[in-house]
Design a protein that fits this description.
- This protein is 48% helix and 14% strand.
- With 566 residues, it is of the alpha/beta class.
- Strand 11, helix 20 and strand 12 form a beta-alpha-beta unit.
- The strands form four sheets. Strands 12-11-10-9-13-14 form a six-stranded parallel sheet, sandwiched between helices.
- The N terminus is likely disordered.
Length: 566
């Protein structure tokens, strides 16, 4: 039970967040549905008043939360505090982007409810001026025609175009801008757009500043109005609601006075926005620090390695940075996992040409023309980071299982390099005793750029007599007939024909149940960290496998799943 709580903390947080949304919605709905100050408003609008206000409350709550998970410096600061040293808390911080998406979905849901409810409200405001609405509705709709009265119905004439009436108001204009910005942000955040047109996602996501400005201004329109507290004292509701024909004629029933709610959204979002502004200032300051490109290496399969130096730059294995190249784009920042070790005198990234931006970067570095550029000819780069990720926790376990699919191997390049440096250092106290490394690739070209590192590690560990420390398994998941014939012909060679390693490449996909069962038998009573970087489909399988092979006994073997995401 204790292990379940440890691994399902994220689920408990999610349930708590959903519970708070439900509480705020229900509590606000009941208040607006029962409050005497909104009795006359409900006469015109009915239950859609409560639907609109309850969804608005949840929008405020979620718009407050959505900013915090993307404050990367705040998240990195929390990762470094003593309160977050425990693995379960660190794993929660690794899910910051996932939580950001969930909050975004909730904002879309409540925005839809809010918009539909107000469309109905506008129509009911308009219809309250018609004869069919009834005498009380007509009286309420006409309050405010005289100078000493405060209106309840913002639609001041039945014959006017209600769309024009609403659009020209502060609430209407800001509401339209908010809705348009939200639609663009959500549609550009889909998996297809983010993967294939990252620059579209990046530019449109910056519309969030317009979204929040419109959100703060939206409440100043005060479209929804209720009876003032002073009017409630003079206007006996229990009597006057049934004797509306006496309004203004007797002291017992003066004409009710109305006012809109004071804007409250800014109270919800001001502190997160302050955090985010500080975040942007820090990022801007970092972007202006000089970055020196010390070396550019072109690897096989169109992979470019860029080695850099920057004053005061300190990293940990598995961290990532955001890279900007003004020669390609002044606004775009792209995340790259650091492939160097902290012990090396530089930091590096490996870039593969997968989109317009990466192709542009490779062209600026001369890779597309096979040119060797002088240092002064290389493009200027700006670096933001480094930032922590799930992979940085590899050294917190005695046994770690690292699983990569395709280009997802990049975080583990830094880890494996750092492991070797730590073992070579006589004063190093490393708690990690065993690494199981799995790499799945669809084609042989994907192995080429990383094979050199594995060959070097294999040779060095063999010289040190530590061949048992690193157990790696490479899987080729796709091949053609010519490759199969070539592999079969060289199957008796001492070295693998694909990678040049002593360990032979496996063909097909691993049997994860078999692999995890073997690891669990070898390390009974151990907490094992499982780290994965790759597609979501495989991530779900591995997460389930970790739960399946973890013991219910606190003294048994436990697999702690960590997924790389940034």
């Amino acid at each position: 039970m204790g292990y379940w709580i440890l691994n399902e903390t994220a689920t408990l947080i999610l349930v708590t967040w959903l519970g708070l949304n439900a509480y705020l919605f229900i509590d606000t709905f009941i208040w607006y549905d029962k409050a005497e100050s909104y009795y006359y408003t409900r006469v015109i609008l009915g239950s859609t008043l409560a639907w609109a206000r309850a969804s608005a409350m949840c929008l405020n709550f979620n718009c407050m939360l959505i900013i915090l998970p993307v404050c990367r410096n705040v998240v990195s600061l929390l990762r470094g505090t003593s309160a977050c040293c425990r693995g379960d808390i660190r794993r929660l911080l690794d899910k910051n982007i996932t939580f950001h998406r969930f909050v975004g979905y909730m904002i879309v849901l409540h925005a839809a409810i809010h918009i539909v409810a107000h469309f109905i409200n506008i129509e009911r405001y308009h219809m309250s001026r018609s004869v069919e609405a009834g005498e009380l509705c007509n009286i309420l709709a006409n309050i405010g025609n005289r100078s000493n009265e405060n209106y309840l119905n913002p639609i001041r004439s039945y014959n006017k175009n209600i769309i024009k009436e609403v659009i020209v108001s502060i609430a209407g204009i800001s509401g339209f801008v908010i809705t348009l910005a939200l639609v663009l942000i959500v549609t550009s955040s889909t998996e297809l757009i983010r993967r294939s047109f990252h620059e579209v996602f990046w530019y449109i996501h910056n519309l969030s500043i317009i979204f929040f400005i419109g959100l703060v201004l939206h409440g100043t329109g005060q479209m929804v109005r209720g009876q003032t507290s002073e009017s409630m004292l003079l206007h006996n509701l229990s009597y006057c609601k049934d004797h509306y024909y006496e309004w203004g004629k007797t002291e017992q029933c003066p004409i009710p006075r109305f006012s809109g709610n004071k804007p409250a959204t800014w109270k919800w979002v001001v502190f997160p926005l302050v955090f985010y502004v500080c975040e942007r200032i820090i990022r801007f300051w970092r972007s202006k620090q000089e970055v020196v490109i010390t070396k550019v290496v072109t690897h096989a399969s169109g992979v470019l390695e860029i080695q850099m130096k920057k004053r005061g730059f300190a990293m940990e294995p598995g961290q990532y940075i955001f890279l900007q190249c003004p020669a390609v784009s002044w606004l775009e920042w792209h995340p790259f996992t650091l492939t160097s070790a902290p012990e090396e005198p530089f930091f590096s990234v490996h870039v593969r040409a997968l989109g317009d931006w990466t192709k542009g970067l490779l062209a600026e570095c001369g890779a597309s023309r096979n040119m060797c550029l002088e240092p002064w000819q290389l493009p200027r780069l700006a670096v933001d980071g480094p930032y922590g990720s799930a992979t940085t926790n590899v050294f917190h376990y005695h046994v770690s299982v690292c699983i990569a699919a395709g280009i997802g191997v990049t975080p583990f390049a830094s880890v494996l390099k750092s492991v070797w440096y730590k073992y070579c250092s006589p004063n190093s106290d490393i708690g990690l005793r065993k690494i199981y490394f799995y790499w799945l690739c669809r084609d042989t070209h994907s192995f080429e750029w990383f094979a050199d590192l594995l060959i070097s590690l294999e040779e060095q560990m063999s010289e040190q007599g530590k061949t048992d420390f690193l157990s790696y398994h490479l899987f080729l998941t796709s091949w053609d007939e010519n490759q199969a014939a070539h592999i079969a012909f060289h199957c008796d060679n001492d070295l693998d024909v694909i990678t040049g390693l002593r360990h032979k490449t496996n063909f097909g996909r691993p049997n994860w149940n078999k692999e995890f069962r073997y690891i669990a038998d070898r390390h009974s009573g151990t907490s094992i960290g499982v780290f994965f970087c790759g597609p979501k489909s495989l991530s779900k399988i591995l997460n389930s496998i970790c739960h399946l092979h973890s013991s219910s006994d606190p003294r048994g073997v436990h697999f702690h799943y960590n997924k790389e995401s940034f």
